[in-house]
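Lay summary. Proteins are chains of building blocks that fold into shapes, and those shapes determine what they do. In this project we predict the shape from the chain. Here is one chain we studied, written as its sequence of building blocks.
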Amino acid sequence: MISIFNSSEPGVQLFEQIALFNLTYSVGVDGANILFIAITAVITLLALIYLLTTRRAEDRIQVAAILGYEGILVGAFVAMNALQFWFWCVLELVPVILMTIRGGSGQKRRWVAGLLLQHWGSGLFMTFCGFTLLAFGVMGSEESLSFDWVRLVQNKNELEYGNLIFLLLFFGFAIRMPLFPFHGWLPILSQYGTVASTTVFIVGIKLGLYAVVRFILPVVPEIAAQWNWLVLLLGLAGIFYGIVLALMQINIRRLLAFSVISHTGMLVIGVFDFNLYGLEASILLATSFGLAGAGIALSIGMIYKRTHTAYLPRLGGMIDVSAALAFLFVVSALSTMGMPGTPGFDGIHLLIDGTIKNFGWFVSIAILVGNVLTAALLLRAFQQIFIAAPKRYQPNVKPSFQSSIAPSVRNEGIIAAIICTLLIGIGFYTTPWLQIIDQNLDRFNGYYSTTSSHEIQH
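And here is the predicted shape, written in a compact code that computers can read:
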């Protein structure tokens, strides 16, 4: 799909639409969603390779759930109809709950599934109400209800309940991101869910951010601009709340979850910068953080497979056992920090440029400090897991056990090679990816500058 996508051609590409009884099924790709689709496919493949290193490789239901989850995410990302998008989000509950109950860890799996239903159910209810009010608000003189994205964007009528529509949609999507203070389900799901589902889910949580870009900014831009102060406060609070809570964790899965919450605060501020720099940065960083987060999650899972623990005080000296996992973890952690040679470097640079233009230096410095502290926590975890002296776990395993994990070692090297090659390769050559992101963003609304950042990049 990327190979036939034309970044110089404006508008939605590969567009298909089927109309039936006043309902439309519309799909298409543009700069806002194409990279999310690609990263979903890549990480699903990595999750399946990871399953080959575990005893769950023969679990057909688990494999089917992962593939079904991939299909649902792709369906949601390509949806050009608000109601169609909502139905895909409802279906997303099925594979996530199935994988959590069947393959999760601990004795609280059903409670975790109930908690997820409670949080996501409230978010889905709010977004459905928001989409319904939006569709009724754009009926105009045609007297036909439509959830079609193109028609919603082209509507120029003043919405009677514009503020209510924005709040319903934004808070509904905030649960899905997750943005502080709607984040409570993510650390619990990360702790008790399966590694394979968590890996794909790290991309799935970007669906909430994408929904804001797709269904709020181009549809109700004036109202969104009036509420950007609220988004700014929630984003800043989320950045430092995630850092403080991550600092308190001894479970590496929960630490990763709170680092994701901190990064979400940065990304949502970039989306509401209301300039092309910030929006480019948010999409580039969302895909970059998704790939890096998947790398960390997979390395954690493969460490758990060897040691049967995710607690930092019980780990140490793992670099002597698997240098590939150590390299994967540290490259992924540095990618979240915006290290030169990773896609996060240009992403953070653009995010700061966009934030300075809209919110000033104070907010930009806060984002930089938060980003560095989050990466520092991950690097500290790297030191505790791989460099520090081993505690309860001893790497001197028996030969019979060593021979039994030899195929797993090969798969670990494959996963590490794929993720690190993508992160470093894209990091050294981000221009084509920024051109893809630019393709249709400046047509969303008049708030974005038509100057493309790749024209002035370094």
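What the prediction tells us: Residues 101 and 111 are 9 Å apart (CA to CA).
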